[in-house]
Amino acid sequence: MSGEGARAFAGWPQGMTGTLKPFEVHVRAEPLTCFESVVGQEGWRALMAHAERTRTRMAGRTFWNVNTTARGGGVAEMIPRLLAYARGAGVDARWMVLEGTPEFFRVTKRLHHALHGSPGDGSPLGLAERALYDEVLRDNAEELLALVRPGDLVLLHDPQTLGLAPALAEVGAGVAWRCHVGSDLRNAEVARAWEFLAPGLAAVRLAVFSRASYVPPQCADRALVIRPSIDVFAVKNQSMAPDVACSILAHTGLLGDGACVMEPAFIRGDGVPARVSRGADIIRLGSAPARDTPLVVQVSRWDPLKDPAGVLNGFALLAREHPGLRAELVLAGPAVTSVADDPEAASTLNAVVERWRGLPHLLRQRIHLACLPMKDAEENAAIVNALQRHAAVVVQKSLQEGFGLTVTEAMWKERPVVASAVGGIQDQIVHGVNGLLVRDASDLAEFAAEVRTLLCDRELAARLGTRARQDVLDHFTGARHLGDISFLIEQLDARAPVGVAPEHGALPPP
């Protein structure tokens, strides 16, 4: 290890021997030309100008992105698509995924909840947790410091990675941190999280948040607000005929066999045709829904803050109060063993299953719990695409939400959405204009009433869906996000310490 790297580890806890190493996920370059047809002439000129400035600025340097899972959740989906377009613009953008122990991910999940203002499992965030957190990141940093050069830029994602910032900054990298979660309110849990993260936060040049209300006072002078985006050309968001969507859902077991009238086909990101071959693990009583059965759908990770139990209870209330309403619920998430940095998935799903088993027979027949296959990420994306497009109503009944990309995805597909008025969802949905908001995320009666409104008023549902798609096109696509990343890179260089020549990607000789 170089002397610079050794200094970066001064004072870090010892004990691990380099057994945890990050791995790189290859990202294939994608040309920006696909955006020309959707952003208009003015938008296209602006995108090309951003691309040219960033390509020139980053010549000879690498733009690293670091997180802790390669699949599952919005961050793992957003990173490779944005980096693919950055590479297509001529920027050396690369993606590294850290490794961690189960104990490490328990601590970082606790941090995740605390940043949302929630106690999570109530476990401490004290000196022992701090030592464990630093120790795991120390092992990962040994590999990163062999790759990252002075003048490179590094964007760390979420609480799991922030502890790397001091070491990376010490070797001359420009470090920013992207926090994808947050809370509009300040409480003791939020304060506890920021206290834990303070050493890493002190080492970053910029901190990036999804909402201004998430910015803590200690970095208000170096914060940027960048809202997330979806890639409208990705497998999850590509156009799909209704018959194809039904065939995919029938093949996976989410619809009855009678819905399968075509091949369950989709187009991979490289343009090669493929078919869905795997089925979903589904807990249900009785048969799968018929093709013409209206479906209420939530697709999210099995996370208590996504409130899958609340979705189930809210739909059960709706079905009890309106027994003649013809609709069924599909509550779907990834296979619980597939997301490396989420240790709560299995227990959250188990709690939902137990609640489902306690419902009357008639209600259980109308509620389907599905774990979607994750072995093939693009196959999973095609299944989610089909499920969202087939839904009569898409819901996102989160108790807290950093942003909510599943909301953006449904809006792009012109689906009517019912979602909680929490976090970044409020930046996407205007109540009664492009979706419906539940003001109190814990109010089951309000949730049930809004879902019933959209099931019964199909004209309203269609009008909301049409406006929703246009709003995504205007505000939440990769073209806008790439412009924001270009600005982030400029600001990182502008904040470089004296003696660094970022335009050349190196430190000048002494």
UniProtKB/TrEMBL annotation:
Residues 65-216 form the Trehalose synthase N-terminal domain. It comes from the Bacteria. Keywords: Carbohydrate metabolism, Glucose metabolism, Glycosyltransferase, Transferase. GO terms for biological process: glucose metabolic process. Pfam families: Glycos_transf_1 (PF00534), TreT_GT1 (PF21269). Transmembrane segments: none annotated. One of its GO terms (molecular function) is glycosyltransferase activity. Residues 291-470 form the Glycosyl transferase family domain. Coiled coil: none annotated. InterPro entries: Glyco_trans_1, Trehalose_Metab_GTase, TreT_GT1. Homodimer. PANTHER family: SYNTHASE (CCG-9), PUTATIVE (AFU_ORTHOLOGUE AFUA_3G12100)-RELATED (PTHR47779). Belongs to the glycosyltransferase group 1 family. Glycosyltransferase 4 subfamily. This is Glycosyltransferase.
